[in-house]
């Protein structure tokens, strides 16, 4: 899949964009910069640019907060969907600046949150990440 700037945003979340490496996740948790928009958090770490996947993401919903697996899975699904629909600005920024970014989104709520609130908060987190990513670039 070619990740180039086109006339319409790409609303997919390919496997190449998912952060799966335990080593990368550990590095992200240890050295990543934390951002918080209640009830969601994000950890971001700048990495060397990879044209195939300049942006890699993972989603987590801790068992400590959400006891039932169905609730954890729902929160991760809602965060994934919100990211998928709102990632275009950050992805474009990464491609233009030729800089890679690892992101881990974490749900910190004790109950499931509805889709509209999830999308609003994830969008705000993405805007903050984009602003910070642009500032560190120039």
Q: Strand-and-helix sequence, N→C?
A: HEEEHHEH
Beta-strand content estimate:
15-25%
Low-confidence stretches are: none
Question: Could you name the CATH topology?
Answer: Ribosomal Protein S5, domain 2
How many separate domains? 1
CATH class call: Alpha Beta
Tell me about the biggest sheet?
Answer: 4 strands, mixed
The level of helicity is: 40-55%
Total helical segments? 4
Summarize model confidence as the mean pLDDT: 89
Using the alpha-carbon principal axes, give the shape.
globular
For the record, the CATH architecture stands as 2-Layer Sandwich
* Order of neighbouring strands in the sheet with most strands: 1-2-4-3
- Amino- and carboxy-terminal Cα gap: 28 Å
Q: Would you kindly provide a written description of the structure presented here, covering whatever features stand out?
A:
The protein is an alpha+beta fold. The protein has one domain (39-137): Ribosomal Protein S5, domain 2 (2-Layer Sandwich), CATH 3.30.230. The protein has helices spanning 22-31, 69-86, 88-97, 115-137; strands at 33-37, 40-47, 55-60, 100-107. The protein has a 4-stranded mixed beta sheet, sandwiched between helices. Helix 2 (69-86) crosses helix 4 and helix 3 packs parallel to helix 4 (115-137). The mean pLDDT is 89.
């Amino acid at each position: 899949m070619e990740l180039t700037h086109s006339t319409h945003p790409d609303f997919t979340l390919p496997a190449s964009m998912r952060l799966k490496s335990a080593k990368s996740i550990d590095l992200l948790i240890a050295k990543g910069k934390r951002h918080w928009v209640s009830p969601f958090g994000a950890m971001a770490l700048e990495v060397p640019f990879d044209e195939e996947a300049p942006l890699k993401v993972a989603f987590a919903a801790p068992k400590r907060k959400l006891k039932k697996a169905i609730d954890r899975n729902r929160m991760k699904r809602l965060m994934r969907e919100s990211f998928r629909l709102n990632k275009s600005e950050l992805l474009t920024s990464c491609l233009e600046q030729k800089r890679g970014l690892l992101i881990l989104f974490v749900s910190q709520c004790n109950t499931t949150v509805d889709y509209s609130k999830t999308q609003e908060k994830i969008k705000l987190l993405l805007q903050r990440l984009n602003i910070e990513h642009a500032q560190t670039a120039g």
